[in-house]
Amino acid sequence: MINSAFPKYSENLRLAPTSFRPKEVETRRQSIRADDKRLHVDAFPSRPNQGERILRVFLNINPHGKSRVWRIGEPFEDIAQKFVPIIKKYHPWRARLLKALRVTKSLRSEYDHLMLGIHDQMKQSDEYQVTSEQITYEFESGSVWVCFSDQTAHAAMSGQFMMEQTYHLPVSSLYTPSSSPLGILQRQTNRELI
Ligand SMILES: [Fe+2]
Question: What phi, psi does 49 have (nearest 5°)?
């Protein structure tokens, strides 16, 4: 499906493990940082990706016909403008220490630092969760949807039984690299982040 929809990606897609999500989302209790019912873009503390894209395919396989309900937020450009100015400064020595201590699997670049900061700040702001521009969308049972989850503000509000397949993709393989989170963040900060 990805190959036919986005032929330019096919050569450089890197497949991550498939996941099956059998739990009901609505009643799940998690810390704020882990709570995917809060609007966020994907960024992972232990897995820096140096700008590489996170492309995800979702399939709602609910056998009882129940939709998977998402909130979908504003464009990444607007998110970055709000949150980048309040993220703490990046320290390369700290990134090297985190790698030496194996807190991160590879070196956390300034790009990864900013993405993680945006992820955390979005989730931590009760005001942002409520007042930011957003829509609610129901993905019916049987439907398939695709998004760059590192760029699309999303929150999974309810639903049960889903398959998810992640692909990673280098920024250089994109149709418009300048519209990627790396391109947008480098433009806004006016410096190289990798
Ligand atoms: Fe997510």
Answer: -125, 5
- Residue 175 φ/ψ, nearest 5 degrees: -70, -40
Q: How far is the CA of 73 from the centre of ligand 1 (A)?
A: 12
Assigned domain for 53 exists? yes
Collect all residues with Cβ–Cβ distance below 8 Å to 137 and sequence separation of at least 6.
69, 70, 71, 72
Question: Does residue 139 lie within any of the structural domains?
Answer: yes
Q: Report the alpha-carbon distance of residue 25 to residue 159 in Å, rounded.
A: 6
SS3 call for 45:
coil
Domain encompassing residue 101: 2-189
Question: Does 183 reside within a domain?
Answer: yes
Task: For 100-115, write each residue's pLDDT tens digit.
Answer: 999 999 999 999 999 9
- Give the Å distance between the CA of 25 and the centre of ligand 1: 12
Q: Domain count of the chain?
A: 1
CA of 42 to the centre of ligand 1 (A): 5
Residue 194 lies in a domain: no
- pLDDT tens-digit map of 25-70: 888 888 999 999 999 999 999 999 999 999 999 999 999 999 999 9
